[in-house]
């Protein structure tokens, strides 16, 4: 672990990125995160399914954008801890010269990013920005050093904007970034909803541990994030139902996690 960031990493307070990594079956977490994670599972057993399905949604969305749309630039904001098939690995397997900028401000995430979030091809570029997503103007300014913002960009907010204090703040963050991108850019967005009382209780309990509050929102609010954009088929759906193989329909049950992919006109 980097000496630069190690003193900033709190191991006495659970952290959402580390808990999420635990729920996904990763290895980058501490005892306090496992305790909080197990407590969450006891309240909402579907949370591990949500975690795994969120990564599957990311993989399918990036494959679609790189493989079918031809987007070769991605801005993944609030990336979390690296795990299997990260954005750059998926994109660069399809477009070797793809450029990916990750954004996070968590010391543990940044430590792992330096070691693991490296380009997978000679032609591609993979880098990260140490910035809080509450400062989208800064994200855009830094991203311009790597991405050509006159060409379409895939902008990604994957299950992180529950940390925004209000819905208005959430929309401001998303659209400040999107406003800096040209027509043909795409938004990939999902987040947790209030559909499942167990998930809502899990988030409430997590806040009581001292972790950064995470707010599930009504499905209609999340759909409104796509206002002004053209949702691609199948539209705004549960993430485990977005462009899955026909043979897999129904494999995973209902989730309190909705999202989609949309094109900027």
UniProtKB/TrEMBL annotation:
Biological-process GO terms, alphabetical: methylation
Pfam families: Methyltransf_19 (PF04672)
Keywords associated with the record: Methyltransferase, Transferase
Molecular function (Gene Ontology), one example: methyltransferase activity
InterPro entries: SAM-dependent_MTases_sf (IPR029063), SAM_dep_MeTrfase_SAV2177_type (IPR006764)
Protein name: SAM-dependent methyltransferase
Organism listed in the record: Nocardia panacis
């Amino acid at each position: 672990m980097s000496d630069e960031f190690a003193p900033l990493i709190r191991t006495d307070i659970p952290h959402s990125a580390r808990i999420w990594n635990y729920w996904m079956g990763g290895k980058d977490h501490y005892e306090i995160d496992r305790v909080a994670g197990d407590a969450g599972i006891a309240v909402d057993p579907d949370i591990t399914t949500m975690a795994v399905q969120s990564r599957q949604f990311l993989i399918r969305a990036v494959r679609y954008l790189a493989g079918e749309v031809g987007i070769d630039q991605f801005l993944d904001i609030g990336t979390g801890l690296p795990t299997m098939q990260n954005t750059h690995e998926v994109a660069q397997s399809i477009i070797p010269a793809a450029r990916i900028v990750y954004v996070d401000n968590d010391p543990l995430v940044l430590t792992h990013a330096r070691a693991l979030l490296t380009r997978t091809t000679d032609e591609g570029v993979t880098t990260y920005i140490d910035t809080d997503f509450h400062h989208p103007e800064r994200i855009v300014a830094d991203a311009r050093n790597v991405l050509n913002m006159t060409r379409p960009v895939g902008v990604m907010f994957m299950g992180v904007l529950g940390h925004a204090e209000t819905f208005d703040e959430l929309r401001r963050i998303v659209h400040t970034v999107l406003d800096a991108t040209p027509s043909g850019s795409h938004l990939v967005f999902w987040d947790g909803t209030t559909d499942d009382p167990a998930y809502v209780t899990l988030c409430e309990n997590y806040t009581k541990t001292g972790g950064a509050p995470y707010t599930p929102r009504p499905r209609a609010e999340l759909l409104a994030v796509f206002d002004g954009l053209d949702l691609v088929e199948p539209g705004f759906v549960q993430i485990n139902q977005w462009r899955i193989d026909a043979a897999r329909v129904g494999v995973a049950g209902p989730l309190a996690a909705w999202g989609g992919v949309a094109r900027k006109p």
